[in-house]
């Protein structure tokens, strides 16, 4: 069964990795003709086998070309696709927008039909085998237009985002690169640096690892080859944030060298408080800056328990805003941290306890 889409005709996707194949899956599911191309025959065949589209043909006449290749070849592929398909609009989904644009301008490429874009979506693991049609749902999709962008071309790229159920957001390339340096690229570096400290840790220390270290190191599993390219292409904004962060770290370290010194405790407290303020500004569910409260439920490590928990929360008419699971090594139970609106906490906890669930902690604990 197909769904009405904004796009029509053939969409050519160059690059059958995670993003390219995921776009292919989503469009194919909606009945769009997706033509896939990739320099790796194995990657291309895998994406096709998984249903991301068909192999591109010489006689294809795409209305839209989506370039989904690594950052170090993005400009080359954009230039080639603009030349090969003079009637098509070309966009790319690279995570850095300014560097490819500068390269193309330096080469004198006519960029009238090019519109850079970037879906803020992905997974820790790459490749066609990790592709999923739903990774764009509800996620921002940055579109970088300029004064030469034709309205019909802009509508085509924004239509792509909307067909994938993403949220188009217009930004300049400079604004985009500064934003992702802070919200994506520096977090990757920080997560990797922290995770690297675990590599030589003794087993006894690692047995104490809880949800905090898991949360802060989750993205450290990313591919080094890709991140060398991303960080290199967006180095100036990333360095600016890293330099500021290094100054903050040095200030906290100096305070902790002598906690009894006047002002040391205030420095630490202000650091934590400023972190609270930053977290509060992060958009939550449906883009809202809302605070939720959490309680922790102990669940037996047996099949069906998590489903039963959610079923009973539904019977209590409790809307779960977020969920985190933690398993202690060797324990026969797990901990489910449930985030709800403050007004829903008491009813949820009392209702679950009445049904025999064990509450491990409450917001005031």
TrEMBL record:
It is an enzyme of class 1 (oxidoreductase). Pathway: Amino-acid biosynthesis; L-tyrosine biosynthesis; (4-hydroxyphenyl)pyruvate from prephenate (NAD(+) route): step 1/1. Gene3D superfamilies: 6-phosphogluconate dehydrogenase C-terminal like domain, NAD(P)-binding Rossmann-like Domain. Its EC number is 1.3.1.12. Residues 294-365 form the ACT domain. It catalyses: prephenate + NAD(+) = 3-(4-hydroxyphenyl)pyruvate + CO2 + NADH. It comes from the Bacteria. Residues 9-286 form the Prephenate/arogenate dehydrogenase domain. Pfam families: PDH_C, PDH_N. Keywords: Amino-acid biosynthesis, Aromatic amino acid biosynthesis, NAD, Oxidoreductase, Tyrosine biosynthesis. Belongs to the prephenate/arogenate dehydrogenase family. PANTHER family: PREPHENATE DEHYDROGENASE (PTHR21363), PREPHENATE DEHYDROGENASE [NADP(+)] (PTHR21363:SF0). This is Prephenate dehydrogenase.
